[in-house]
Write a structure and sequence with these properties.
The chain is of the alpha/beta class. 20% of the residues lie in helices and 18% in strands. It has a single domain, classed as Lysozyme-like, CATH 3.40.80.10. Helix 3 crosses helix 5. Bound molecules: zinc ion (ZN).
Length: 213
């Protein structure tokens, strides 16, 4: 497992965990080695498979919070590692059988967790279609922001997201900035994230500022 490359500091869950501080997003220059961000916390999800033979050229932005609207728990780790206990919350009973994942999560403090290697197909987009393309899981990287459709995201989440996108674009050059899409864009009528709370202009401004900084 690629996660084996990471420092084991906590075996409290089924994940191999390596903590890293992104406290100063401006200093973030995290490289990608073996399709894993070297400085991210890692928590290996079994919910992935091989990508078909197509290059990675898209990033899909999502939001997630478990339970909805609550932050700071390990429930997202548990969902992506098939360990969510349906008895812990009534909402969990409706999702605990799902087999889903995303490549990255950026929590409210800006900490990044990687669940699936970028070369593998994570299961985040589901049925999807946009500009004549379908099955976005095949060629995209999924990034979850801890949040909801309506609550403003944290400044540090925007800053870390922008840096992560630039790192990914440097590693996978086919990811053009116009290929940043929201889940709601590729699955309209079925998905609403990252929601009206997500400020696309703010993200684009940071991408330009950091790219030329
Ligand atoms: Zn989504």
């Amino acid at each position: 497992m690629p996660c084996g490359n990471h420092k084991l500091v906590d075996s409290g869950t089924s994940c191999v965990i390596a903590w890293c501080s992104y406290n100063n997003a401006a200093m973030l220059m995290s490289p990608v080695v073996g399709h894993w961000l070297t400085d991210a916390r890692s928590c290996c999800s079994p919910n992935y498979d091989e990508r078909p033979s197509c290059q990675i050229d898209t990033i899909v932005l999502h939001n997630i919070s478990l339970p909805p609207g609550q932050y700071g728990s390990r429930y997202i780790d548990l969902l992506f590692t098939n360990g969510l206990n349906p008895a812990d919350h009534e909402y969990f009973a409706t999702i605990s059988d799902l087999r889903v994942s995303s490549h990255l999560l950026i929590d409210r403090q800006g900490e990044v967790t990687q669940y699936v290697g970028f070369d593998k197909r994570a299961w985040h987009a589901g049925k999807s279609s946009y500009l004549g393309r379908e099955r976005f899981n095949d060629f995209s990287i999924g990034i979850e922001l801890e949040g909801t459709d309506w609550q403003p995201y944290e400044a540090t989440q925007y800053e870390v997201l922008a840096h992560v996108i630039l790192v990914l674009q440097a590693t996978y050059p086919a990811i053009l900035t116009e290929n940043l899409v929201g889940h709601s864009t590729i699955s309209p009528g079925r998905k609403t994230d990252p929601g009206p709370a997500f400020d696309w202009g703010r993200l684009r401004g940071l991408l330009m500022a950091f790219d030329h900084g």
